[in-house]
Amino acid sequence: MEEELKNNVLKSGTSILGIVCKDGIIMASDRRATAGNLVMSKNTQKTVKINDYLVASGTGMASDIQMLQKIVAAELRIKELKSKVRPSVKEAANLFAMLSFRNIRQFSTIPSIAGTLVAGHNEDGTFELYTIEPAGSIAQVEDYDANFSSGMPFILGLLERQYKKDINVKQGAELALEAIKSSTQRDIGSGNGIDIFTITKDGIKQVVNQTIEPNFR
To answer: What CATH number is associated with residue 198?
Structure first.
């Protein structure tokens, strides 16, 4: 019963990606959500705006990802109202990490599993990208990362050859599109659509909102 329950919980097999560019950060993901061997959703947006300065992408249990994002959004707003100072991207990432660390160590029939990429812009004009693995460890990303998403091997293999340190966000968005497309061709947990966001001095913008349609012949 326990194994059956675990196999049929809605999961985000997922391809998520963050790329650091010279003038901002790219965040990208696919749209497929699965339960066991079934595709339960073809339109799950895995990269979301947490607030006006922060974007997060998640991989793992869909419910854990959504709850983490809701709690972090609320806690950051409370902190800002109390202190009259906007939290930094690093503070937000550490909050994700703390909650992930705590959640996975609480006894439960269904363990909490959620890996997260967090990116945003600070008030001083700097940009940061952090990766938080499901057990709660955190690291700042200097180039690119796909966390522990199921599409990670295909994404990192492509970026290892094509990423350049001085790329701009336009080039980064094109590279992210190719990386997500590559993973959806080989990873059964990824597919159905692509979302790409840019984080620059002009704010957060969604630059790709693409559906991948099957062609039957």
So the answer is: 3.60.20.10
